[in-house]
């Protein structure tokens, strides 16, 4: 043993409050709210953490299940296979191409303009589906859009979302978060915050980078607060992104229709 290595205790004890989650399948991800695994049949299962430091993860998954039940099936949603209201586990269809963020980071040079426009349109469509049912996602970002076998986009992860004006248990990442000098804990989320984040998702889709990807988060926040945003002179859908970032977009439907017109003009 190296002299600077700590001694290994003879016995290892877990806190009485610690709950070990029994593995149900192949590990996929460890999210803020839940452990995500792939079952032997190919489906995905989400199991809530039992950790008070992470907040009420069970309640977050209950919220997500209620949102799926409210929305029903839709092409822009991952299919909910089962909700176990006793164990509070959620079983869903598997998305073979992973998150939009992962896919673009790995394949950006091979992604066509038409596929970029398709994803932008589908992202707006998915978010509009939530907004039409009085749901604010509150963590819009490329990590929360998934791609199926046909590379069609699905919006996902509603565990921290706001329903009927309720407070959210999450907020967007810094490059997707609208500036708000009056923000305080418990302040209800607003529609324009989802739209701001969607503008940053569009930017990521068309450029392959998050806004100000080369800056530290504090610098990004300062830029946003000063009304400074990345140059859009050579970025597709720059007018739509500008509406989002300047918080002048009226609705997700407005953004969807603008992108849809561009898709039609390009015979998509």
UniProtKB/TrEMBL annotation:
<protein>
    <recommendedName>
        <fullName>Protein kinase domain-containing protein</fullName>
    </recommendedName>
</protein>
<dbReference type="Pfam" id="PF00069">
    <property type="entry name" value="Pkinase"/>
</dbReference>
<keyword id="KW-0418">Kinase</keyword>
<keyword id="KW-0547">Nucleotide-binding</keyword>
<dbReference type="InterPro" id="IPR011009">
    <property type="entry name" value="Kinase-like_dom_sf"/>
</dbReference>
<keyword id="KW-0067">ATP-binding</keyword>
<dbReference type="GO" id="GO:0005524">
    <property type="term" value="F:ATP binding"/>
</dbReference>
<dbReference type="InterPro" id="IPR051681">
    <property type="entry name" value="Ser/Thr_Kinases-Pseudokinases"/>
</dbReference>
<feature type="domain" description="Protein kinase">
    <location>
        <begin position="1"/>
        <end position="268"/>
    </location>
</feature>
<dbReference type="GO" id="GO:0004674">
    <property type="term" value="F:protein serine/threonine kinase activity"/>
</dbReference>
<dbReference type="InterPro" id="IPR000719">
    <property type="entry name" value="Prot_kinase_dom"/>
</dbReference>
<keyword id="KW-0808">Transferase</keyword>
């Amino acid at each position: 043993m190296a002299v600077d290595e700590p001694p290994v205790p003879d016995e290892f004890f877990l806190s009485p409050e610690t709950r070990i989650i029994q593995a149900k399948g192949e590990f996929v991800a460890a999210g803020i709210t839940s452990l995500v695994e792939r079952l032997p049949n190919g489906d995905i299962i989400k199991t809530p953490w039992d950790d008070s430091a992470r907040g009420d993860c069970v309640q977050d998954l209950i919220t997500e299940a209620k949102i799926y039940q409210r929305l029903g099936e839709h092409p822009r949603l991952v299919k909910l296979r089962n909700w176990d209201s006793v164990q509070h586990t959620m079983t869903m269809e598997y998305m073979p191409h992973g998150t939009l963020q992962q896919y673009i980071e790995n394949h950006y040079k091979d992604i066509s303009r038409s596929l970029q426009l398709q994803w932008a349109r589908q992202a707006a469509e998915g978010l509009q589906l939530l907004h039409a049912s009085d749901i604010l996602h509150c963590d819009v970002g490329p990590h929360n859009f998934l791609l199926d076998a046909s590379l069609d986009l699905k919006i996902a992860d509603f565990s921290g979302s706001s329903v009927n004006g309720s407070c959210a248990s999450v907020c967007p990442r810094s490059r997707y978060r609208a500036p708000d000098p009056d923000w305080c804990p418990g302040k209800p989320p607003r529609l324009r915050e989802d739209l701001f984040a969607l503008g940053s998702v569009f930017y990521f889709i068309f450029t392959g980078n998050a806004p100000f990807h080369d800056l530290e988060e504090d610098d990004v926040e300062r830029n946003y607060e000063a009304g400074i945003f990345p140059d859009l002179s050579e970025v597709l859908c720059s007018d739509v992104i500008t509406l989002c970032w300047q918080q002048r977009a009226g609705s997700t439907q407005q953004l969807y229709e603008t992108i849809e017109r561009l898709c039609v003009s390009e015979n998509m």
